[in-house]
Specification:
There is one protein chain. Helix content is 47%, strand content 16%. It has 482 residues and is of the alpha/beta class. It folds into 3 domains: 19-268, 3-Layer(aba) Sandwich (Rossmann fold), CATH 3.40.50; 328-416, Four Helix Bundle (Hemerythrin (Met), subunit A), CATH 1.20.120; 430-481, no CATH class. It has a 5-stranded antiparallel β-sheet. α13 (361-375) runs antiparallel to α14. The termini are far apart. The structure holds one RNA strand of 74 nucleotides.
RNA sequence: GGCGGCAUAGCCAAGUGGUAAGGCAAGGGUCUGCAAAACCUUCACCCCCAGUUCAAAUCUGGGUGCCGCCUCCA
């Protein structure tokens, strides 16, 4: 059985057949770095992380590209508000994004191009489109001529006539562009800008590229004219991906991507979580309350094409559930327990483990179910349910060697979904540490008051061994790390 | 207004024709100085109506409710 992928373009599940046997070119739209990332971005990142991990597990040589939009109006406007340069703002939030991804155990993409690195390619592409008669220059701007693209609207299932008349809210802003655009739905490949702003020189004067152009250019430069899978959040279907597709395909006369995949959103109180609604929690906020594995379980328990409603109750349910997996995996490998993150470690099994798994009936059965679930359009919800099934078997088994093997399998297969199953139960925060030490110092004071110096010295000496130095000061006892 | 999606136990959530995965919570039990944890166990006929079929949560039609996209957005 091969991998089935739901293709947004056709609206159906299709058998995945890569363009070149054994290889997958995968491109996912990454963030615009103008603000902190929230749970919705975490979902996008985790979903694509799992897809690329699974494709590697399935034996494909994957080239996973995720771009960074580090120049656009949002960045420029925000930078203006903060009175810093746009590139400073972008760098700040890019660093933060990387930190978030690392903390979430999201494996880095193979290639991570940034828009600002591909200006010449974008300009070149816009020029080529003009040359080919698919785009036109108008007052320093360059617009893509949607009328010259018969397929336009296919991906987003839009009808050009509807777009012209239906987009009521859009009409006002279109008024001012009436004289420059031939057709209201034409979109900018290049926008002129005052030379005092961030921009680049082009054949049409000083300005900036249109947003959609960057992905088209980077895909072409990094992966080629046609890729296997192109994805992103479902809000990107239209217009972003529609426009990318129109540009690239008009220029190359071949499909931009064979499969289009889109993940659904995270809602809060049944409303989309988004920066513009301001109802979001940042990834940093969430990671202070929940582990990366908990967040990942919360996300992967729902199929990627269905919306998730965020709630503290659901998060806590995931937290409790995760502990069952963590406990079951404890036997796997003592040295790994509690060692924190080890990002990207589980791309693939080592061959020795894979051989051992093949000889075990339970794991073979589990493997079949797990793979069947993942092959079915990356149904992580079902895959996860099989992890729980294996965890139950581990708990019920009396045979230690068997339990260890199963536990290792549990950890390895969980790794395909990006779980670390690190045991964080004994990771104590600073607040707890201080309370515990305060208690010990109190017990020591009580002992000293009773002239029980044996006990008081025991406490101080043992704490010293643990790297805590106790000092008696005029204000009472205190401690510091040695 | 146009387009698309969803509606499954107290909650979250799989399941696209053969008779309801999984998780949380809750009840019962084992263990236990107390408490907690752990482990075992119990718990649904799938929004409404009509139809197709030997057989439907799953297909068709209608209804109701909710959500998303059409403008920046993962």
């Amino acid at each position: 059985m091969s991998i089935q992928i739901f293709n947004t373009l056709t609206g159906k599940k299709e058998e995945f057949v890569p363009i070149e046997a054994g290889k997958v070119k995968l491109y996912a739209c990454g963030p615009t770095v103008y603000d902190s990332s929230h749970l919705g971005h975490a979902r996008m990142a985790i979903v694509w992380d799992v897809i690329q991990r699974y494709l590697r597990f399935a034996g494909y040589k994957v080239t996973f590209v995720r771009n960074i939009t580090d120049i656009d109006d949002k960045i420029i406007n925000r930078a203006k508000e903060l009175n810093i340069r746009p590139d400073q703002l972008a760098r700040h939030f890019l660093y933060e994004f990387w930190q978030d991804m690392y903390a979430l155990n999201v494996a880095p993409p193979d290639i991570e191009p940034r828009a600002t690195e591909y200006l010449q390619q974008m300009i070149g592409m816009a020029a080529d489109l003009v040359k080919k008669g698919k785009a036109y220059e108008s007052g320093g701007d360059v617009y893509f001529d949607v009328g010259a693209c018969p397929d336009y609207g296919k991906l987003g299932k839009k009808n050009i006539e509807d777009l012209k008349s239906g987009a009521r809210d859009q009409v006002r802003s279109q008024d001012e562009l009436k004289d420059v655009k031939r057709n209201p739905v034409d979109f900018a490949l290049w926008k002129s800008a005052p030379e005092t702003e961030t921009g680049w020189t082009s054949p049409w004067g000083f300005g900036r590229p249109g947003w959609h152009l960057e992905c088209s250019s980077m895909i072409k430069s990094v992966l080629g004219e046609t890729i296997d899978i192109h994805g992103g959040g479902e809000d990107l279907v239209f217009p972003h991906h529609e426009n990318e597709k129109a540009q690239s395909e008009s220029l190359h006369d071949k499909p931009l991507a064979k499969y289009w995949m889109h993940n659904s959103f995270v809602n809060v109180s049944e409303e989309k979580m988004s920066k513009s609604l301001g109802n979001f929690k940042t990834i940093g906020d969430l990671l202070r309350e929940y582990s990366a594995d908990t967040l990942r379980l919360f996300i992967l328990q729902t199929h990627y094409r269905n919306p998730i409603d965020f709630s503290p109750e659901a998060m806590n349910a995931a937290k409790q559930a995760l502990m069952r997996l963590v406990r079951a995996a404890l036997l796997a490998d003592a040295e790994e327990n509690g060692s924190g993150f080890y990002p990207s470690k589980h791309y693939r099994f080592d061959q020795k483990a894979a051989e051992a798994y093949k000889n075990d009936e339970t794991i073979t059965e589990f493997h079949k179910e797990f793979v069947a679930a993942m092959d079915n359009d990356f149904n992580t919800a079902v895959a996860v349910s099989h992890l729980f099934g294996l965890a139950d078997k581990i708990a019920a088994s009396k045979d230690t060697a068997q339990r260890q093997l199963w536990a290792k399998a549990l950890k390895d297969y969980s790794g395909i979904l990006g779980f670390t199953l690190a045991d964080t139960r004994k990771v104590v925060d600073r607040n707890s540490t201080e309370q515990v030490l305060a208690l010990l110092l109190q017990l020591r004071q009580d002992a000293r008051a009773n002239k029980d110096f044996k006990t008081s010295d025991l406490i101080r000496n043992e704490l010293a061994k643990a790297g805590i130095s106790v000092m008696d000061t005029a204000e009472g006892p205190t401690w510091e790390k040695t």
